[in-house]
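Friendly challenge for the regulars: who can give me the structure tokens for this chain first? No prize, just bragging rights.
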Amino acid sequence: MEEMIKTSGVHHISLTVRDIAKSKEFYTKVCGMKIIVAEKEYAGLTDGTFSLWLILPENEIESAKFNPNNPGLHHWAFTADSMEELKQIESHLKSLGVEMEDGGITDDGYGGTGIFTKDPDGMKVEFHLK
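First reply, four minutes later:
Bragging rights claimed.
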């Protein structure tokens, strides 16, 4: 039997974004992350369990919007520890006027429960019930 590697979780995720300011605003106000580094061409944020890095592209951006059907990122998710916490997240998103798939808490299509929205670049972000 082949030995499996062991890790202790996600350290960071890096996303290429069109506008650092808009993305910082989304991930701080909507997702509750804290800024740890803010520069002109990149920013680092954290939720206390991992860091998210927002990076401007090295070359000119193509006009095409993010497409989850292309190889690469489909979506990524934050964890909600309880239904109560997920309901609080839903209420927070509604108070900010954030558009959510199915209007809020929904079946994730794989037997789980979550809330799906999109960041300023159209990348799908989920809040997933643990």
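The chain is about 20% helix and 30% strand. The chain has a mean pLDDT of 91. Your move, everyone else.
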